C-alpha cells in the first residue's frame, strides 16, 4: 500500500472562512461575538479575527440554537449558561465520532469493500 501523506491540519480560520462554513454573512459572526461571551477569537496585529476549531464548534452550537431551533438570542444565551460544560462536551464527542466515521470510510475505501 503506498504511503499516504497526512493532511495538514489548519489551526486558525478567518472570519470569511467561518461565515462560509455556516453560509452566513461575516457581520453575523461579528454580531454573535458581541452577544455571546463564549466566542473569543484571537486577533492578529492587524485586528483580524482568527478562529480556532473550538471557536467554530461554539459558533456551530449557537447556529443550531438560533437558526435551526429558532431560539431568540436571549433564549440561546440562557441555554448556554445553564448547560455550557455539558453541551460543549457533547459537541466535541459528536465531532470526534464524525472524524472516526470518516477514518473508517477511508479504510473501507482503500480495501475496496462496498458499503452494505
From TrEMBL:
CDD domains: HTH_MlrA-like_sg2. The keyword Membrane does not apply. It holds the Pfam family MerR_1. PROSITE patterns: HTH_MERR_2 (PS50937). SMART domains: HTH_MERR (SM00422). Keywords: DNA-binding. Residues 12-82 form the HTH merR-type domain. This is MerR family transcriptional regulator. InterPro entries: DNA-bd_dom_put_sf, MerR-type_HTH_dom, MerR_fam. The keyword Ribosomal protein does not apply. The lineage of its organism: Bacteria, Pseudomonadati, Bacteroidota, Cytophagia, Cytophagales.
Amino acid at each position: 500500500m503506498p504511503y499516504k501523506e497526512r493532511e495538514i491540519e489548519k489551526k486558525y480560520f478567518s472570519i470569511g472562512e467561518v461565515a462560509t462554513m455556516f453560509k452566513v454573512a461575516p457581520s453575523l459572526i461579528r454580531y454573535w461575538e458581541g452577544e455571546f461571551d463564549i466566542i473569543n477569537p484571537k486577533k492578529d496585529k492587524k485586528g483580524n479575527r482568527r478562529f480556532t476549531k473550538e471557536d467554530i464548534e461554539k459558533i456551530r452550537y449557537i447556529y443550531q440554537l438560533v437558526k435551526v431551533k429558532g431560539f431568540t438570542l436571549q433564549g440561546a444565551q440562557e441555554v448556554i449558561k445553564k448547560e455550557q460544560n455539558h453541551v460543549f462536551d457533547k459537541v466535541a464527542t459528536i465531532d470526534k465520532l464524525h472524524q472516526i466515521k470518516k477514518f473508517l470510510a477511508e479504510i473501507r475505501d482503500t480495501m475496496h469493500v462496498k458499503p452494505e
